Amino acid sequence: GKQNCFCLSLILSLLSLAGVCVDLILFPLDTVKTRLQSPQGFRKAGGFRGIYAGVPSTAIGSFPNAAAFFITYENVKSVLHHGSASYLTPATHMVAASLGEVVACLIRVPSEVIKQRAQVSPSSSTLRILSHTLYHEGIQGLYRGYKSTVLREIPFSLVQFPLWESLKDLWSWKQGHVVDSWQSAVCGAFAGGFAAAVTTPLDVAKTRIMLAKAGSSNASGNVLAALGGIWRTQGLSGLFAGVVPRMAAISLGGFIFLGTYEKTRQLLL
């Protein structure tokens, strides 16, 4: 009852804090990725200059975003686990992760829009970009790319979380006892890196949609149209722009984040 509830909220706070740290440590990789994916190309978007442009937006959005995801994930999981057969476990994890993303994106998308726009115009402040976006596009400007973010996150979660859980199960079975938190972290890094690579084209489409000039075709938020445009103009290399920094960031992120997740769960539950 009460104690369990307290433990869960403590876990969520620690996790969300881990999420913030991961986002801030790996921010330069994210900036490089955004600039590689931007329509104007890496050099014109700022190259290696102002590598922390847009960081205030991430700093503010990161904690509530991670908390929203895990609160939804844990709650949905416990509701669905109630009375469902064990072979349905991967499916319940998938549903829980997907719903977690839909909720978390309500917070993530506005902070991501501002962050990405700041990353490709490092001379403007985050505040200026925020007011410019609100003035010219209103609240819906902040939610530009909501659909494409959810469309990127859900396949990502559907690959990452079940893969993470099965790698842990496999390793536990191989060694005859449950994995340690460092092993869980290694599984998290693998699962994250693989999921990141496979979903890169969706990530590029999302970047193009968020950075598109108001009124341009990409600004409408159509993911398939954006993917088609990138494929026609830049081919496969365009669709996988920024795949290396994306994989690196998410592998490291998965290592730190999912390792922390496992450790706090072992300590408290």
Automatic annotation (TrEMBL):
It comes from the Eukaryota. Keywords: Membrane, Mitochondrion, Mitochondrion inner membrane, Repeat, Transmembrane, Transmembrane helix, Transport. PANTHER family: S-ADENOSYLMETHIONINE MITOCHONDRIAL CARRIER PROTEIN. Its main location: mitochondrion. Transmembrane segments: none annotated. This is Mitochondrial S-adenosylmethionine carrier protein. The keyword DNA-binding does not apply. It is a multi-pass membrane protein. Solcar repeats lie at residues 8-79, 88-170, 179-267. It comes from Strix occidentalis caurina. Mitochondrial S-adenosyl-L-methionine/S-adenosyl-L-homocysteine antiporter. Mediates the exchange of cytosolic S-adenosyl-L-methionine, the predominant methyl-group donor for macromolecule methylation processes, for mitochondrial S-adenosylhomocysteine(SAH), a by-product of methylation reactions. It catalyses: S-adenosyl-L-homocysteine(out) + S-adenosyl-L-methionine(in) = S-adenosyl-L-homocysteine(in) + S-adenosyl-L-methionine(out). Belongs to the mitochondrial carrier (TC 2.A.29) family. It is found in: Mitochondrion inner membrane. GO terms for cellular component: mitochondrial inner membrane.
